[in-house]
Amino acid sequence: MLVHEHEPFNAEPPRAALRQGGPTPLDTFYVRNHGPVPEADPATWRLTVDGLVHRPLELSLEDLRTRFEETEVEATLQCAGNRRAGLMEVRDIPGEAPWGPGATSTARWAGVRLADVLDAAGLRPDAAHIAFAAPDVSPVADPPQPFGGSVPADKARSGEVLLAWSMNGAPLPPVHGAPLRAVVPGWIGARSVKWLRRITAQEHPSRNWFQATAYRLLPAGADPGRAGPGDGISLGPVALNCDILHPAPGARLPSGPTRISGYALAGEDRAVARVDVSADGGRSWTQARLGPGAGRWTWQPWHTDLDLPAGPVEIIARAWDTTGATQPESPRHLWNPKGYANNSWARLHLTCD
Ligand SMILES: Nc1nc2c(c(=O)[nH]1)N[C@H]1C(S)=C(S)[C@@H](COP(=O)(O)O)O[C@H]1N2
Ligand SMILES: [Mo]
Fold first, then answer.
1. Band of pLDDT at residue 7, cut at 50, 70 and 90
2. 102 CA → ligand 1 middle, Å
């Protein structure tokens, strides 16, 4: 892992570790923490469901396992800060980690559907948002506060949103949210709240600092130190993205046929329709081969073979989604003061002999 920070722990897998696609091994899955990992005793741990519900609930892990059907969803999580390093090449972003393309990983998550738990609680018609709260107090927040966030009730009631206790068939590791976390496929990782303690149905989106103030797209000229609740654009569904995982950046290779591979991800209700790869600055494009193994909520591995000339080469990749949208060409057009949602074309520089 490439460790960005030890306290709190923040790390991403190197490109080579993500290369095989499919579920990411647990010891390789990226970690994004804003505070210390809270300890929880599974025996005394309780989940509270309250707010605009007819029947507030207090559930133990045993209650969750016995009262609701267990279900599994394979889903990719992607941090809104993924590929921030590309934005930092345009202009520095002080105080934020220079994430490469590895702030994203995929797992088979098992647990119960949030929809089933909300049904048991009886959502009132005025419940428009479902808020998640955790106990990890982050000193980054102003004022310091536990991590939280919300999703619209429609998303919360869709079958893919889980309260998960297992990852790739193993118990959820502490660093990934044990004993229980939300998993919100298709949305920025920040909404998949770890160490979940409380679910609140409410009329308004979460006022937690991590939703009201952070994880928002500010205009390029804004001072992030002065941003307050509601400033900028709230990030929700993941933006269409892709990156190149192989060869490694800066590699020296023999010229000739070369395998280029990577991942693409389309958020929420879109899927990856095509990935184009170019070795001549975008004058000509080759369509990469997609798959196998992409599910409704997972990244799309892709590869192609290009005949590379001798000398310095720039490889470019861009994905298209099922709505016909593609990625923006340059991080210059996307730069924002907190460095979120860099989904510009992937670029890789190589030298061929
Ligand atoms: N309680 C809590 N939940 C959290 C976070 C956090 O710091 N605290 N980080 C969020 C962010 S920004 C991301 S991208 C994902 C990362 O999940 P992972 O560490 O399991 O990869 O968790 C989200 N859930
Ligand atoms: Mo994140």
1. very high
2. 14
Q: Report the DSSP pairing between strands 170-171 and 162-167.
A: antiparallel
- Does the pTM surpass 0.90? The reply is yes
Q: Quote the pLDDT of residue 292.
A: 81
Neighbours of 263 (CB within 10 A): 29
**CATH architecture of the region 2-234:** Alpha-Beta Complex (3.90)
Query: Which ligand 1 atom is the nearest neighbour of the CA of 194?
Result: 3
**Residue 294 pLDDT > 80, yes or no?**
no
Q: Whose CA is nearest to atom 8 of ligand 1?
A: 147
**72 contacts 108 by C-beta, under 8 angstroms:** yes
SS3 262: strand
Domain layout of the chain by residue ranges: 2-234, 241-352
b or e along 273-305 (b: 16 or more beta carbons within 10 Å of the residue's beta carbon)? bbbbbbbeeeeebbebebeeebbebbbbbbbbe
Q: What is the pLDDT of residue 153?
A: 98
Cβ–Cβ contacts within 10 Å for residue 40, how many? 19
CA of 191 to the centre of ligand 2 (A): 8
Q: Which residues contact residue 338 at a Cβ distance below 8 angstroms, ignoring those fewer than 6 apart? A: 93, 96, 214, 215, 216, 217, 218, 224
**Is the predicted pLDDT of residue 318 greater than 80, yes or no?**
yes
CATH architecture designation of domain 241-352: Sandwich (2.60)
The set of residues, in sequence order, having a beta carbon less than 8 Å from that of 281 and lying 6+ positions away, is 314, 316
pLDDT class of 20 with cuts at 50, 70, 90: confident
Q: Looking at residues 190-199, what average pLDDT do you find? A: 98
| 241-352 has the same fold as 2-234 | no
